[in-house]
Fold:
Amino acid sequence: MSIAAQRKRAPSIRGRLVIYLLLPLVTLMVASIWADHRTFVTPMYDAFDRALARGAIAIAAHVQPAADGVLYLEMPEGTPAMHPPGAPPPGPGGQFQPHRPPPMHFEPAGQPMAWMRLYPESRDSFIYRVSLPSGQTLAGDEGLPMAQGGEVDSLRYSDATYKHLALRIVSYRTKVNNQAVIVTVGETVHRRDHVVHRLDTVIGLSDGIQLALVLGLCLFGITMALRPINRLRERITQRQPQSLQPLPLESVPSEVHSLVQSLNTLLLTVRDAALAQQHFLTNAAHQLRTPLTGLKSQLEVLASESGDQAQQERIARLQGSVDRLAHTANQLLALARAEPSTHSPGDFVIVPLEPLIGTVADSMLDRAIARDIDLGAECAPAQVRGVHWLLHELLINLLDNAIRHTPDGGRITLRCGLHDHIPYLEVEDSGPGIAPAERERVRERFYRAAGSDGQSSGLGLAIVEEIARSHHARFEILDALEGSGARMRVVFPGA
Structure:
């Protein structure tokens, strides 16, 4: 699995906190909506039931005995009576025509559904029935069901479905002229449902807004709480790769204090290991250079004193071996000094590339002429920020590698300039080139490519790689622009 995929899958601390806070907050909001619904809807239903009960009591107050003792319903003048929605209006002319003995108004039993509007602009209608305990209907709609049970002067509520309409009914039991009477009133539930829907909507919006505000405050609090960790992350990100100094522990949150301490211990361990390696290579190189210089001098004296041709050849081979050993010692020293951890930001200055190429080409010109190699340069003004002697060492190793692998009479070209405003340094040769499969391996220390003459120590391109890395540059191995050969290119970071 790639690092990008692992980073994509790993949730952040902020994401974890939001999830851990969001789940209980949503649960609390659902519980709050349910509790608010139960808290407000039950009293509201009770209020509707009380209003319905007042209607039943009001109708019961108009039940009167006639002269012959028969009970009838007295209705005041102007009482609205309406047929149910969608049903054909009863009576001639489409109006409800109750039989009313003057001056009172009543409705005898057997009339169609007697509907009334309790609220003028409401969709809710109300149906009633006045009956005796025996089931005889005195007025209203005789098919209206009654709520069961109850004593005199008691109210009983029930839900019922009548004529495909959902009703809330109340039955009021009372006595008129010592006769038991049951007044049942039913009301459609449109207004109740509408009020409940609006109430639930208001409760949901209110609790949703509260949840959003609480979540926003939580996110703000999480952001503020994570600021020390974010500052620590930025401090680590902005550090130079070669910086192995411990991180300061001031203002570090206690939750990550031990983590930073462990990281500091690791940094100190890596720094000590790098310094030990650097000191070893430096000391080894210095210790080798002194006896090698003396050995080379003694071989030169021995060669001048000896006249034997075979001995001269052996001495020449020894001198070549000593030269290669001295070259390896010098490269080990250069490799130790090229480590990024050995340089501070103050060592980096502005270095023009064009005069650097001229200096290196002049120092290697004799070697090129001795092998009839055409050494040229194609330079354009460019400058980089770096350590001058390291860049000089980088170019020396690139040119030395090119001379070693270019056949006699070949061609080497040094280039510098800007490509898309980015500075670069380049050495191209006409040698056999480097196969793509080996272009990564030749950067390794002490690796010799196939077909090498054995004169190389295998450190040249490793030194180039280290110096490029210390300058945040990119070392590329490409094909020659023309013909066979290799093109070594170092691309520096833009200004």
